[in-house]
């Protein structure tokens, strides 16, 4: 492991301990691969126990050798799962000697079956849902993390440029998507992007054109896309890209664990007037959001202001999806996962902090015609923000 | 939806009802995207309730429009989650009018947080873990499903051929992997492969060479690979491919929801003698397994026999991973997910049935040198088996 990540994961565990103390937790058990990586530097299979005071132990099932090489936390072999409670009691007598210690876990991702087994294996623990605490901790990124998001932004910008240079009338959404993915992969994209939400999946973003981009889907974003099959009902399809229709290029990639998310709109020829006006409204919403983007800004207010602007433009029904299929946010945190906190949505009232990284994505959906919009990733900085996305923000008019 | 899938998903729900009756369940709630698709033909977000008798309802949150277009089960809008219990009680008075109806759910994948909310929303249900029941149902594939696995096998065979034609000494694992992925994607690979196991992830398989292929990892398979980073510690790396070392090409893809999994070993030049002998042992294990592969065969016995053969060859410590990092199976079911049932492992004693599809993968790991082996996907047929994998089974000796 690089010295940076070693020091950093130690500091993250210390930060977790401070949060636990504030929230009255005696310990936290991290079970999810992304959480394990975040707090130890290793993604091997096992459980990380962090007591409110003292040293954490990463109990590893497999691969012990790899965990020992990667983790900044002390490694122990997990051993038989039914003995895990006794093991914890032995290693942490101060915690599990209590009558009913409050133990937090990442219950938003831990499957119920494993949770029920944990309850049996560690019978005196009073289990608490630590999901919100963990998501809040992860929302502020260190320079180490931001540097990786920057690298992902570079790969995405270069892949977009490469993709646009190949864009021709008549090629399918999938052909353009595959070219972009190939460029991303050769730049070190790990081949998957991670989402935390149950049942949420994401390919490497999507290229979607015309009415196919506007097809509604379960995907928790403003545009889902037609997709190749009902068994993967989102992202690119086999539809050919035509002239004078919006082409949505929502591109992500994951470099060294960190994701970027960016969207640009392109057209071969000319956008219909109504869609051009909507694109300009998306730009105006982006500028207005940027004007308020700084430490202290309230996420739900940024979202409320975007709703107002969509309404003033007469585009409420088209904003962030259409009608019943609208999503109720303007942006989202991004880091090791695509769908991090905070969300620019109602209910997110904690002020933004320096170091928070957000993807902001005003988009407008016109069923039968297409989706237009923009998505940039920002870092909240001392006196405002810094744009991490590197692709020039404009409507890309292509000869094709 | 095609007429086939309509009839088929109806039949699957009827099969589920027969299983529920046998196991004394009053109803089953399906929450996972793959399960929803399997039983309705639609992967939109919501909950499918199947009563032991009568009509199922798919309560959909988003997208209703798309679910209505895709699902063979009746669609209702989900509405506010806190009202879901009352809604079920109203729609299924015979079930929820009981004092404590036994309701199964897919607890192996449902997050604990959502499970705890469901327990509150549907207070009189006696929740049961239906994971095993659901996995058993899914293990036998219909002709409709097998046809899709065949298409995936075609794409994998063609991508392997394409990849091998580009293989050159000095190119990186990632470069070869990216070329294969590009071929798969253009043939309609949906861009992701699904695994059911918690924290398990898979790229499009892996290309891994020499000692990098032999590096242990958390991945629940015999070979993990070095990977690009500790944040994605498996699959291909930036290591250049050299002469006279084994190149493991473990290739998967997902066509119309169904996955294939196949492995071939290649070499530029000549394999070291010890690895050549191990490769031949993998072939011998494959032939021996095939000789017993038919309806009625017992999965754990097939595994036990492979262990014996590895031992006879003096290769026990190298079989299915090395030493402490060995996995304890010879193969696994495959379909909508990579890691389906049955597993060819201890504890799987139910006889194989006609229609079961299995990936069987004898492999040998030599730390510092590499991994050799084979993986084929088979369908259990009337009097034996049918090989679904289309790539010729041989050691691929490449000029490079």
Automatic annotation (TrEMBL), chains A, B:
Record-linked Gene3D superfamilies: Creatinase/methionine aminopeptidase superfamily, Creatinase/prolidase N-terminal domain
Entry superkingdom: Bacteria
Domain Creatinase N-terminal intervals: 12-140
Pfam families named in the record: Creatinase_N (PF01321), Peptidase_M24 (PF00557)
MF terms (GO), sorted A to Z: aminopeptidase activity
Residue ranges occupied by any Peptidase M24 domain in the UniProt entry: 147-380
Sorted UniProt keywords: Aminopeptidase, Hydrolase, Protease
CDD domains named in the record: APP_MetAP (cd01066)
PANTHER family: AMINOPEPTIDASE, XAA-PRO AMINOPEPTIDASE P-RELATED
Protein name per UniProt: Aminopeptidase P family protein
Organism expressing this protein natively: Cohnella xylanilytica
Lineage: Bacteria, Bacillati, Bacillota, Bacilli, Bacillales
